[in-house]
Amino acid sequence: MKVAAIDIGSNSIKLVVVDAAAGDSFAVLARKREIVRLGHETLLKRYISREAIRRAAKCVKRLRSVADARGAESIFAIATASVREANNSERFVEKMEKKTGVRVAVLSGTEEARLIGLAASQGCSNRGVATLNIDIGGGSTEISIFRKGKPVTLLSMKLGAVGLTERFLTSDPPRRNQLDQLRKEIRKALEGPVRELREHNWDAATGTSGTILAINAALRFQSAGGNGDGDKRKSVINLKDLKQLNSKLAVMNTTQRHAYAGLSTRRAEIIIAGAKVLEETMRALGLESLRTCNWSLREGVIIDQLRLRVAG
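The structure assignment produced for this chain is given below.
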């Protein structure tokens, strides 16, 4: 059985198409990702503009055609922070279905954390190990702890690379007072979640999604002297290395960050805010390192739907 999942995020819209075997196991047939920046102004105004809906619909139509070409029998589409925070989210869902034929489910922050944690625990954790996962998106950050495939705690915070950049980092490079305000906002938002997380134990820590994968790629790029992608097998982000990277990126403009860290221009625009969220989260939780994981929300949706079919 071939199925697909489309993740409509605040920074990008992503597709995975899989061939599912028995239970919740599957083989990935295709992955595709397009930066649409749905969260641009949406997270500030809490309103999805007509132009943003148009961009999203065109992208979803393209991704649906990829899924159809791969023989997907079902497409599960979900939307996250930008849509759930918008006052016209229902209109967005209606327009998506009318323009693309795809029905979109809007996830709560807790449900987003559950599905991401489910993917990380199945795809990147050892069996029986309690794993804490951090996922930094364009509009929110989700943290979960899973043990033996089951959630222990699920948290969502309004800390996203796109939203924070537009709120605080309005000059390029950012000014010192903007960086100070950004850091204060992140630390304030983390206070409650960190207190809750410290009541639990975990054996390993992972990180998922675009911001964290981009940070890992930037660190590899630097380890190779800026002349390549570095060791692709190195999937660990050390807090010490992250702090050094952040201090250098903070004084550069977008063009300089793009060249220095080997980032795409669109990622370079929002990397300071996203990387600062990761640094402050790791610091607050006492994490000296974490391992990156390529599975995230899309894979979590697939796993969840396959389990529901088996249970049904």
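Interim note for the steering committee: The longest strand covers residues 26-35. The chain has a mean pLDDT of 95.
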